[in-house]
From TrEMBL, chain A:
Pfam families: Sedlin_N (PF04628)
Cellular compartments annotated: Cytoplasm, Perinuclear region; Endoplasmic reticulum; Golgi apparatus
Keyword list, A-Z: Cytoplasm, Endoplasmic reticulum, ER-Golgi transport, Golgi apparatus, Transport
GO BP annotations, alphabetical order: endoplasmic reticulum to Golgi vesicle-mediated transport
Name this protein carries in UniProt: Trafficking protein particle complex subunit 2-like protein
Species: Gopherus evgoodei (Goodes thornscrub tortoise)
Keyword field contains Endoplasmic reticulum: yes
Principal location: cytoplasm
GO CC term (a single one): endoplasmic reticulum
Name of the gene: TRAPPC2L
Protein family membership: Belongs to the TRAPP small subunits family. Sedlin subfamily.
UniProt xrefs under SUPFAM superfamilies: SNARE-like (SSF64356)
Signal sequence interval, chain numbering: none
Length: 139, 781
């Protein structure tokens, strides 16, 4: 369902970014980049006192006419940003949540790999496959 | 062809090879078949072989004349040493080692190896060493016995599949490496194709100390020193040498499954494992494994992929099985095999639930291969516990019977979440064949495990007769909980499958999605393999309309149920006045906390917007829930709690982990109920959920809740009986396990039903929110 999936590290640089329509990649990269501001805003808005109860799923970050951007942040401040097509109205909130959950799980698996140094770009094939499965549904 | 200058050793070697190929004794032409066989034994890629043939002119001539043959052999040597194939290289390459061909599995060939390529100088300890051409002296020595041996070898080779002609590997390196391997038990045979080295090594080691005929004095002189120095090194050398030998043997058994681990290889891996982790039941932490495998000098990316494949339970550590799989993959990769995308079945670890010191066998739907049979012996090696977080999967059925006595300990086991959290991720990949992944909410309670095992047992034993466990269940239930049992019976009888707990019908897709959502789910594979007793009904259609009809059939539900049960969620049963009916439903969606703010306001909107057909039901539900909370909460609470007391902790654990949706619903409803006026927005989730859970069960109108309560109660009630039956009848245990699995299935279906309701409620919630904003914009956060 997603047209673009990005994993952003704590320092706000991308660990993994992939979009489906490859010709418009730059546009999605830009979108993800601008959405980071919204993510930060949401994180701070949650309140410092409620950090442990902070919902990982941030919800709709901001919609544009073509697509919507959803955000999800882990406890280690790794952010997942997903761009979905606005025309995909059947996409419900809980489905987005489930997609983020899958992302989070796959990300955890990548982390568990001792050969992966945190902060590196994610090259895991399993992670790629999972993202592909999420994105392929569009096509 | 240009003139070919051969050293004396080469000359002799080639001459012998030619005579070997010269089956027709023409002394002039070697038949193509033989030659091709020989070249195949050289273990070169086919395109290289073709290139060689072209270069030497055989393709032009159509046959292998002596000169062509010699040229070809030289080119083989060139190719094997990694140099590009050029005509010029024929004469320009100095000190080219003799071409290597996969040797036959007999001692004479080993002697051949020794004779032909003994190298006095070569003691460099690195893999893939090609010995420089043997010294003259040795060659002469070798040639004497060589002829005699050649006769034998030719005859032997007539029978062997892979025509072994010449030395298999450079003895100078191979002696110490081989000997090293001998020290490492089973000498690191890594692949079936690599199985050759093993038998070779054994005879070779005998040949080494014992062979005195020719060339050995030189060897023995050389092998000890290199042996000594190599001995200190560990895996790098071993892997390297294994790789070398394996490369030679690569083609010898390509027909076999390359991913099978032979016993020798496995033994070797086990010993390597011991060097890192002396406890075979323990596991290697990621960092240690990383160091170990980094020594193999594979690129990090590939090692990372190997890790992903082999760390089956994704716990960041390698158990023995995982380690063997990883090692096997590393060796295969070093030999040029491409890494698979998924873990081959023969490498899948037999997952054992360590924490529990019991073996939870899982049916391996993926074809049982002989490799797995080899694995089945591993429980003997490391029976009770492997890695703490390795759920057992892919174990063959025979294992079940073995471990049935171990199931007893399950009941005493305090299952930890770590154990169970692994299940989900493991099961999904473990059973790629199963399209449906049931989200069996594996909970900490032993009952759940039992249910899984029950499922497994039932599936394995009686795939064709799913009704039997069901039928077994009701009697047991009736003993423990009349209320729940009656419901259960109704719910579980296959014949009544449809009429019974519609809430239990499993929606495979939903279940599957639940599985993927919840990592903490486990035991999905058993669910997959065991078809749920009632075939999945047209679930979605039930959600609203037909479910109501179904629910009417359940009005009988006793126990916690109160007034007209009926209404199937999302539409809650018709209950008293609608005060906050929509609220709890509205907030069923997962993000309960975020919606809590709305809950207090939205309910009031409900009466004003009777747009939804279900509103009355919502209201009824809301009212009922409100009423319950206000009036009957305590009493009903106690009722339910009593029922649940036997396993309250399990229940709460289940609550907290099993079904996120249900919990969220419960969580949503609690804040709504608790604070109609001033709702604390975000009460601590877990305790609330537990309370909510019981409240859910309190609500009779919620059919599935009630039934779930019954199921849970039944399950929980049956739990204490499990340890008792432990010492008794195995069948009783299995029956109880089946029962539990049945309950599990039911709960899973319930889960899916609830999720369906959740989705429906979400829609309503969205519309309600819109209205809310319109009417009370200031309240919106």
């Amino acid at each position: 369902m997603a047209v673009c999936v990005a994993v952003i590290a704590k320092e706000n640089y991308p660990l993994y970014i992939r979009s489906i329509p490859t010709e418009n990649e730059l546009k999605f990269h830009y979108t993800v980049h601008t959405s980071l501001d919204v993510v930060d805003e949401k994180i701070s808005a949650m309140g410092k006192a409620l950090v442990d109860q902070r919902e990982l799923y941030l919800g709709l970050l901001y919609p544009t006419e073509d697509y919507k951007v959803y955000g999800y942040v882990t406890n280690s401040k790794v952010k997942f940003v997903m761009v979905v097509d606005s025309s995909n109205t059947a996409l419900r909130d809980n489905e987005i949540r489930s997609m983020f959950r899958k992302l989070h799980n796959s990300y955890t698996d990548v982390m568990c790999n001792p050969f992966y140094n945190p902060g590196d770009c994610i090259h895991s094939r399993a992670f790629d496959n999972m993202v592909t499965s999420m994105m392929m549904q569009v096509c | 062809m240009e003139g070919l200058t051969l050293s004396e050793a080469e000359q002799r070697y080639y001459c012998d090879l030619f005579s070997y190929c010269d089956t027709e004794s023409t002394k002039k032409v070697a038949p193509n078949g033989r030659v091709l066989e020989l070249f195949r034994a050289a273990q070169l890629p086919s395109e290289v072989v073709l290139q060689i043939m072209e270069l030497c002119g055989a393709t032009r001539l159509g046959y292998f004349g002596r000169s062509q043959f010699y040229i070809a052999l030289k080119l083989v040597a060139v190719a094997q040493s990694g140099l590009p194939l050029r005509v010029e290289s024929l004469n320009t390459v100095k000190d080219l080692p003799l071409p290597r061909f996969v040797g036959p599995k007999n001692e004479q060939e080993l002697r051949h190896t020794a004779l032909y390529s003994s190298d006095a100088d070569n003691s460099t300890p690195y893999s893939g060493v090609i010995p420089p051409p043997p010294g003259r002296v040795q060659v002469k020595k070798g040639s004497v016995s060589h002829d005699a041996v050649q006769q034998r070898t030719s005859t032997d080779q007539q029978e062997s599949t892979s025509p072994v002609v010449s030395p298999q590997q450079s003895p100078p390196t191979s002696p110490h490496t081989w000997r090293k391997h001998n020290r490492h038990p089973s000498g690191g045979n890594n692949d079936r194709p690599l199985a050759g080295p093993g038998p070779f090594w054994a005879p070779f080691s005998e040949a080494q100390p014992g062979s005195s005929a020719t060339g050995d004095p030189i060897w023995s002189g050389h092998s000890p020193p290199p042996h000594q120095e190599n001995w200190d090194q560990t895996t790098v050398r071993t892997v390297a040498s294994a790789t070398t030998a394996n490369e030679i043997r690569r083609q010898s058994s390509s027909y076999d499954d390359p991913w099978k681990i032979t016993d020798e290889q496995r033994q070797y891996y086990v010993n390597q494992f011991k060097t890192i982790q002396p406890d075979l039941n323990g596991f290697i932490p990621g960092s240690a494994a990383k160091e170990f495998f980094t020594k193999s000098k594979l690129p990090i990316l590939e090692l990372s992929h190997i890790w992903e494949l082999s760390d089956f339970d994704k716990d960041g550590a390698l158990t023995l099985d995982e380690f063997c799989a990883a090692f096997h993959l590393v060796v295969a990769r070093k030999n040029g095999y491409d890494l698979p995308e998924k873990l081959p079945e023969s490498l899948m670890p037999k997952l054992i639930d360590l924490e529990d010191t019991t073996v939870v066998p899982v049916i391996s739907e993926v074809g049982d291969q002989s490799g797995e049979i080899g694995y089945s012996s591993s429980p003997a090696e490391a029976p009770p516990s492997k890695s703490p977080s390795m759920p057992s999967l892919n174990q063959t059925w025979p294992e079940l019977n073995q471990s049935s006595e171990q199931w007893e300990t399950f009941s005493e086991r305090s299952s930890s979440s770590q154990t169970l959290t692994q299940f989900d991720s493991n099961i999904a990949p473990a059973d790629p064949d199963t399209a449906i992944v049931h989200p069996v909410p594996i909970r900490m309670t032993p009952s759940k495990i039992h249910m899984q095992e029950m499922e497994l047992k039932r599936t394995g034993n009686d795939l064709a007769n799913p009704t039997s466990p069901l039928l077994v269940k009701p009697p047991d239930l009736s003993e423990e909980n009349n209320v729940s049992s009656s419901k259960f019976v109704a719910g579980n009888t296959v014949a009544d499958g449809y009429s019974s707990s519609d809430s239990y019908t499993s929606d495979p897709e939903q279940i599957g999605s639940t599985v993927t959502r919840q990592r903490s789910h486990s035991g999905t594979s058993p669910e997959n393999t065991a078809p749920p007793p009632p075939p999945p009904r047209p679930h979605p259609s039930h959600s609203r309309s037909s479910s109501l009809d179904m629910n009417r059939s359940f009005t009988v539900t006793p126990g916690q149920q109160q007034a007209g049960v009926v209404a199937y969620p999302p539409a809650v049963p018709p209950r008293p006045p609608p005060s906050q009916g929509v609220g709890p439903h509205v907030h069923r969606p997962v993000d309960a906390e975020s919606l809590i703010a709305h809950t207090s306001t939205s309910p009031q909107q409900i009466p004003e917007q009777p747009n939804f057909a279900d509103f009355s039901q919502f209201e009824a539900f809301a009212a009922s829930s409100v009423n319950e909370e206000e009036e009957n909460e305590i009493e009903t609470h106690s009722e339910v709690l009593q029922v649940e007391k036997p396993s309250d902790s399990a229940g709460s654990l289940r609550v907290s982990k099993t079904d996120g949706r249900v919990e969220d619903k419960a969580a949503a409803s609690v804040p709504v109920n608790a604070g109609k006026g001033t709702t604390p927005l975000a009460p601590p989730p877990k305790p609330i959920r537990r309370r909510l859970k019981s409240e859910d069960e309190l609500r009779p109108e919620v059919e599935e809740h009630t039934q779930k309560t019954g199921v849970i109660a039944a399950v929980l009630a049956s739990q204490p009986s499990i340890p008792r039956s432990v010492g008794k009848d195995k069948k009783a245990i299995q029956a109880s396990i089946r029962r539990n699995k049945e309950t599990n299935t039911v709960l899973a279906r319930l889960n899916s039903e609830l999720q369906q309701q959740l989705k429906d409620v979400l829609e309503e919630r969205i519309s309600l929110e819109v209205q809310l904003e319109q009417l009370r914009p200031f309240s919106h956060l």
